[in-house]
Amino acid sequence: xxxxxxxxxxxxxxxxxxxxxxxxxxxxxxxxxxxxxxxxxxxxxxxxxxxxxxxxxxxxxxxxxxxxxxxxxxxxxxxxxxxxxxxxxxxxxxxxxxxxxxxxxxxxxxxxxxxxxxxxxxxxxxxxxxxxxxxxxxxxxxxxxxxxxxxxxxxxxxxxxxxxxxxxxxxxxxxxxxxxxxxxxxxxxxxxxxxxxxxxxxxxxxxxxxxxxxxxxxxxxxxxxxxxxxxxxxxxxxxxxxxxxxxxxxxxxxxxxxxxxxxxxxxxxxxxxxxxxxxxxxxxxxxxxxxxxxxxxxxxxxxxxxxxxxxxxxxxxxxxxxxxxxxxxxxxxxxxxxxxxxxxxxxxxxxxxxxxxxxxxxxxxxxxxxxxxxxxxxxxxxxxxxxxxxxxxxxxxxxxxxxxxxxxxxxxxxxxxxxxxxxxxxxxxxxxxxxxxxxxxxxxxxxxxxxxxxxxxxxxxxxxxxxxxxxxxxxxxxxxxxxxxxxxxxxxxxxxxxxxxxxxxxxxxxxxxxxxxxxxxxxxxxxxxxxxxxxxxxxxxxxxxxxxxxxxxxxxxxxxxxxxxxxxxxxxxxxxxxxxxxxxxxxxxxxxxxxxxxxxxxxxxxxxxxxxxxxxxxxxxxxxxxxxxxxxxxxxxxxxxxxxxxxxxxxxxxxxxxxxxxxxxxxxxxxxxxxxxxxxxxxxxxxxxxxxxxxxxxxxxxxxxxxxxxxxxxxxxxxxxxxxxxxxxxxxxxxxxxxxxxxxxxxxxxxxxxxxxxxx
Amino acid sequence: xxxxxxxxxxxxxxxxxxxxxxxxxxxxxxxxxxxxxxxxxxxxxxxxxxxxxxxxxxxxxxxxxxxxxxxxxxxxxxxxxxxxxxxxxxxxxxxxxxxxxxxxxxxxxxxxxxxxxxxxxxxxxxxxxxxxxxxxxxxxxxxxxxxxxxxxxxx
Lengths: 760, 155
Hints:
The complex is a heterodimer of chains A (760) and B (155). By secondary structure, chain A is of the alpha+beta class. Chain A contains 19 helices and 27 strands. Chain A folds into three domains: 13-129 and 204-280, Alpha-Beta Complex (Aldehyde Oxidoreductase, domain 3); 381-460 and 614-759, 2-Layer Sandwich (Aldehyde Oxidoreductase, domain 4); 467-609, Aldehyde Oxidoreductase, domain 4. In chain A, helix 9 (328-337) packs parallel to helix 10 and helix 17 (650-669) crosses helix 18 (727-739). Chain A is globular, with a radius of gyration of 27 Å. Chain B is α+β, with helices and mostly antiparallel strands and 155 residues long. Chain B has helices at 22-28, 77-89, 99-112, 118-124, 136-151, and strands at 2-7, 10-15, 47-50, 53-56, 69-71. In chain B, strands 2-1-5-3-4 form a five-stranded mixed β-sheet, covered by helices on one side. In chain B, helix 2 crosses helix 5. Classes of the chains: A alpha+beta (760), B alpha+beta (155). At the A-B interface, helix 1 and helix 17 of A face helix 2, helix 3 and helix 5 of B.
């Protein structure tokens, strides 16, 4: 292979790195109306009355909408394939406000100052209810968050509205309680994983206008253009054919932009006024009125026999989806999906629990999507089990982890197609210096250094759901245009997809024009989420390129007057095997579009979905230094050994991994979305919400142990999400090995470590 | 009020409000490399130079820039491109949204620090947040870039 496996720079790299106007805000028309939102100061209330007359009388205020003025058709903002598993529990504006920050009125004005002035003049009278703020008290709370009768679920997700339960789930194979009784060693651990903010550098933003045919065009920093089109169509009650959604360059997403946070507001303004409109969330809004990771409580019980084989696994959970149910049931489901298959010597496994509404900012998709939470809980318990069994934690894993060609209780008989996880563990042990440094050593000055480790799996796309189409055409000049609907948000997916197409067509990346993502032009793609783009869209691109290649060969053979099996393609030209007659691809292209050679432009097409979601794996190793006097934890070194199948572009995969690890380190050590007593978010700026700076992370080392996934493009699996999962459990274990406290309530701040040390 | 600044070497007169910040003024003037990532002077995205010194333009009042020399990435283009190429070769621009502010700080550091150590580099750039890359690739790029510069005989 000449291109797959090469660290080709991103095709858009120079433009985005050097400040070119290629992001959403850069493209907004200068005359766009500025859209601002009046928000509820209360966590739970009913709008008794709302008076906009004074605000509307201000010059340059274009329009103001309240709940009385908007369509009344409930929808979800979750970016998921139809029929979405998320409940339709939202209105554009509702009479009931369900969290502090929920939208009360939409104001459009000629400029920001006017919009803000108008906002202050809107008078709202609220009937305030007692909010549900503690997710552990949400079930059967006297306050019922969603009492509306028109809430709709596309199918049964276990919703019990009157009990504040969005989803109730249970998966059990075998009899967990019976197996636990038979076990020699049983451990239990209850873990709390906090809400985490995505904190992408480009805040949420969109603008909209009507095009020359009167259709609504929405340009948005989104991961999900096709889903946004469907959301807008339903919420605004206009046909999807009248809507176009375009994604320019995006300044980071991490799953946050898998929820349609802002598009609906400008779309409503443009659709009503006919005028361009834009909305740019500030950092405070991005923190407090969009979405975050689902906070969860997960209780894990593991049972092992005398030899150290894990025979029973039980995970009971509670997840906080906040005020609306975006990604509520599926994030929770993934907790079980990405933990139960990992240790396959089990005889019984169970995952069960509830997802609940609370009066807080809605949760949504966030890199890892439940697997992060599940990994933290499971791996913390496995580390505890290893200690009880008096075994090295790497040995317990080597003994119990699923291997290539094996099944698990929940795999439905399907064998694991690829894994080098055992090698990843061996390599990670070497790199971190496990034999010398595990478990701990005093380094003087009241400081101690220690190691901890964890493993994880994610998926590659959503099996049987994620389906991407790709189209590649041979242009008149012999170059190619690759049309895709996946949404590069900085990851480099446009680049790696063009690498794949170029590999198949034996051409160079420079000859391929990549176009994405625009619902008018791109073939359907759910968008870039669920670790799907390399694996699912990638395979669609490979198939489309193969389809085109076949057509080029057939066309060339026809022009050379031989059959297709008598020619060869070398990327530049077609050559007859016997006589050595040639025709260039440029010439074929020219003849095809001019109509002489075959009467049509050659276009390769493919649609691809997978019935499996092959897991990428990581073994993560942390070395920490803990100050025994203060409880301060410093991360010294982090080693991650990654099996993502074939690495399509090593540089881009490495950066994906390093970035995800640092987000995972943030989750483990620094980041926490917090609220005050009345439900107002207190961590709504970078002053209060700490993401890692370059001083907070220590050394990070990423290396790959490639496997070959038979169902993936060139053997590739995914990389985007799996990378965030191991830091929390590995760091927590390292801290335990250092000072003897196993904190199960993230993040592990010095204060928590110190206080826990006083309890020993 | 009306101010006159020297923007990337050219005199420019502009009308600004008294409470307007340079980040907004410059963006309104079509300078796309200046981006805002926070409202609390934490992220470093809006870094420009005033009189050759790196400054957060989201916290610099435009009226105070009157008569001053302002440099954005657009005015340092060849040098910025040179470093950006190293950054991109490393794959560590990722989403690119923080890159201009980051690069402006790197180039300021190059002028200010002579043969910085890794620790110096990390310290100098702490105020430039990045959520995509995990910083390691940026560090590799800086080390490669400065290494190249140090080996050039004319320097």
